[in-house]
Amino acid sequence: MNRVGWKAAPVVVISAVGGGFLLSGLAEGRFSLQGWAGSTALLGLSGILLGLFWHMTASPRWVGWAAVTALFLRLMIGVGLSLVLPVWGHESEVSQAGYLFFDAFTRDRQAWQLAQSGNSLLAAFTNEFSGDQYGGMLAASALIYRLFSPDVHRPYLILIFTAFAMAAAVPFLYGAISRYFGSATAALAVWIYLLYPEGVLLGASQMRDPILIGLGGVAFWLVSRWQDAPRRATVGLGLVVLLTAAFSYLVALPLAGILFLWWWLEYSARIQRVNIRRLVWFFVAVVGVLVLVAMAAWLRETALWDARLTEAGSGKIQALFAALPDPLELPFLVVYGLLQPVLPAALFDPSKPLWTVISTLRSLGWYVLLPLLAYIPFGIRFQPKGLQRHLIVLSFLIILGWSLLSSFRAGGDLWDNPRYRTLLLPWLAILAAWAYFTARQQRDRWFVRLLACEGIFLLTFGIWYANRSFRLGLNLSFFEVAGVTALLCGLVLASGYWVERRRAVKTG
Fold this sequence. Notes:
The chain is 80% helix and 0% strand. The chain is an all-alpha fold. The chain folds into 2 domains: 3-253, no CATH class; 271-441, no CATH class.
């Protein structure tokens, strides 16, 4: 341990002891020696590992503090929600138990059962437990309960684990992005990753998603360091992908594909023979098609099932489906899913104040990123040919494909669509940060036009949602509002194209 590490050690110990005491007292409403000891041990271990990761990546000091901020932000929100949901949440069993997500409620209860049963933790990977079809989160949670809380079910201990998992990726993410795109883009991407509301809520819940996101960030850093230490990076990548598969092989497979493509774009520049590069790209295309064909039947079945669940749970969707031809129902839900959580709905649909705040923050996060992501096809023209351009195009295509696939799979669901998208949060953060700096440096009017289109959407559908909730007397159907929105956005983009063409003619 270096000199800075030794100086930080007392701070870690004091913070863990004090934080463990405060955490156990808040969550349990009383002092518990076992709760204090368990939370102190987990917080101390988290602090030590964060310091180690910061040192490994040789990141600036502020990055270490950002990682600590990410940990405590998620932990405070997670504990806070567990306290207020039974009081201000819905009357459902999940909310009354202090959980935000149904999956977290089910999995955490079953993890406690497994911890108390005395059975091997490998039982988590069998069909005995339905709360987690992959087993990794069940086994990890049960292990934490056995080691740190054998007497009482303390869900806040799992919150330390999930909050740490997302925080751990911060130094790795900064190290990888700064290598490819510079420190300014890396810094903004880190703060997007840290503060993105959906990521905060997932890290503040007993979900497996934060672990998957964190592992993705670590793997990204390993790919960026492959050329410096190929053997160690390859071994590390193999271990990370295997660990990811223990939590979700359906995420591990695309993650491995993304990492390979990112690595290949950088490494292929060393290969002089064009035929070899073409052969590898042909192989990638064939594998991609085979995977999609193999998954097609399962995807269609699950998509139709989730679509019916969404329809059954929403009278508004039922009414819209009644006016739509059958072949357009699923495409409509895909687009609807891409816009979830819909900001006007979060603001104006009647709900309890706590849920209005949660929905609005989730929506704001996505609607801040949307114009930045939509700007990438416009902004890429300013990026010179080379590795950075290829990586941005690749990342954009991956995010676009993953978002469409996620929306298709989730059938327009309010919770699953954002959750699936957020699994690629490291790459979402990279693209958003790059788009922001490109639009600002180039003073590109196309970004302003995209913001105008989003503003038109929010205004027109905000009025429509407000009319539904407050009976303002505006008798406009959904399709009429959608048509007006499309027309106005089309005029903005068409006039922008005309202006740019005239400017090009004058300067040419």
